[in-house]
Amino acid sequence: xxxxxVYLVGAGPGHPELLTVKAVKxxxxxxxxxxxxxxxxxxxxxxxxxxxxxxxxKSVGSHESRQDEIHELLVAKAREGKMVVRLKGxxxxxxxxxxxxxxYLADREIPFEVVPGVSSALAAPLSAGIPVTHREAGSAVAIxxxxxxxxxxxxxxxxxxxxVDTLVFLMAVSGVERIxxxxxxxxxxxxxxxxxxxxxFWHGEQVVTATLATIAAEVARAGINPPATxxxxxxxxxxxxxxxxxxxxxxxxxSSPAFQxxxxxxxxxxxxxxxxxxxxxxxxxxxxxxxRLAEWKSASELARELGLNRMGLAEVLECLVSMGLLExxxxxxxNLELASxxxxxxxxxxxxxxxxxxxxxxxxxxxxxxxxxxxRQDIAANDPSHxxxxxxxxxxxxxxxxxxxxxDLTALGSGLFVGWGGRTFHELASNRWPNTVWNxxxxxxxxxxxxxxxxxxxxxxxxxxxxxxxLLECCERQQFGPVLKAAAGGLTPDGLLIVxxxxxxxxxxxxxxxxxxxxxxxxxxxxxxxxxxSRILSELENAxxxxxxxxxxxxxxxxxxxxxx
Length: 565
Fold this sequence. Notes:
The protein has 565 residues and is an alpha/beta fold. It folds into four domains: 5-118, Tetrapyrrole methylase, N-terminal domain (Cobalt-precorrin-4 Transmethylase, domain 1); 122-240, Tetrapyrrole methylase, C-terminal domain (Methyltransferase, Cobalt-precorrin-4 Transmethylase, Domain 2); 266-360, Winged helix-like DNA-binding domain superfamily/Winged helix DNA-binding domain (Arc Repressor Mutant, subunit A); 387-564, Vaccinia Virus protein VP39 (Rossmann fold), CATH 3.40.50. The chain contains 23 helices and 18 strands. It has a six-stranded mixed beta sheet with strand order 14-13-15-16-18-17, with helices on both faces. The protein has a five-stranded parallel beta sheet with strand order 3-2-4-1-5, sandwiched between helices. Strands 6-7-10-8-9 form a five-stranded mixed beta sheet, with helices on both faces.
């Protein structure tokens, strides 16, 4: 068989409109995409639907064996005669190990080509309004890996770097304190301007400016997280003049408002509503398989721990490998990032309760027939396990950071949060709008509540904003409308009503996971469960509210913002 070809392609800073023309053409025509954790879903969406997408990202501190696996995969796919795109954030030859991958391919006589991308070393400062060179402030630039700064026996020549006009450190969050200390110790002025740019060219972009002496403390105070780029030099002062440059970068209407490293957890919701995969995932969650696979473990070891048949368990593990949740090797099985982040019980981002709840809504053919014949029950079925409440809470916790990114509630003075995710929202609000005072309540925390509208408890108060979060899932059929009207009655004349829930879209294709999970809950549990967007808009108008914005949010939910007419 004639071997295929591997293209080592730079994805640039992440936004699809900042890809090269060559990169777009390759994505549209390739057979296989091997991508890393700094590649966005919007970039992957350019590929043809039949393209095989393989996630092989490596988080900080991950095992070296992961790179060996990438090398072997590229060769294997090329030898199958396929056109392979190895998609890497930024430029493939700048701190992306693209040189190692090219060398490995060359040694095995695999045809390859390197397609450059816009490196974040240049794009991140540009996004923040910082030119890395300027005739009056910088005639030389050094680009440095931030990971090297933290090593005990670093190869970095700090004395030489201290004399370079502009320094750009990639992957610098964890090493910023030592970087600043070393530069000052080797002669750089503590008053040298410095900036840390997080998530350049994305809606979650954040820029912190300080001096070399204070940048580490300011980065910690602002809660900056990777990916982020550190710039040191007099050119940082130019940000004051250039930060107002107007951007015209378009995004898909259903895209996420903040950076979310691939792979996307939406994949999990699709699995949880999809046939046999539903039951495989439910079994793995119910037996805490993912909690046992932080490190390599064989099927035999797991079978002994759980008292199960080795051959049967091995087949389940292979299913989980095919679903992109585990990786397999001669050492056994181990979690991939998707499982480590969202399926382990104690992970702060765990979606385990929601996935168990979604997966429990399994239907027989007769139950679907009965539903179609008789319609929906008026009373929501009882859930003795409290799984529904846990599901509502974890889904709200997942989605609310995206909701907060879409809002600016700085000048509203006071607010009321009603529903699931109250603690998460309070943490977000205290950071984003520290001068706004928030109260909160959840009418469904007690199962004794029969009238959620009255349980909101306005007590004559008026608020600049009222947020309703995830209430539909627990409402019975005639309860959600009165809740909307009660919330509207608690607004000041210029206040905002913000509704975040699982409304089915009226003007776009609703995600498969949202439609299937809603239908399953209707058949199995009854109750309200979901409304269409057109229905919620009509109800808001009847309540005397004018809709200002409506936007999709990750997790199959919608955000609607309205104010009194």
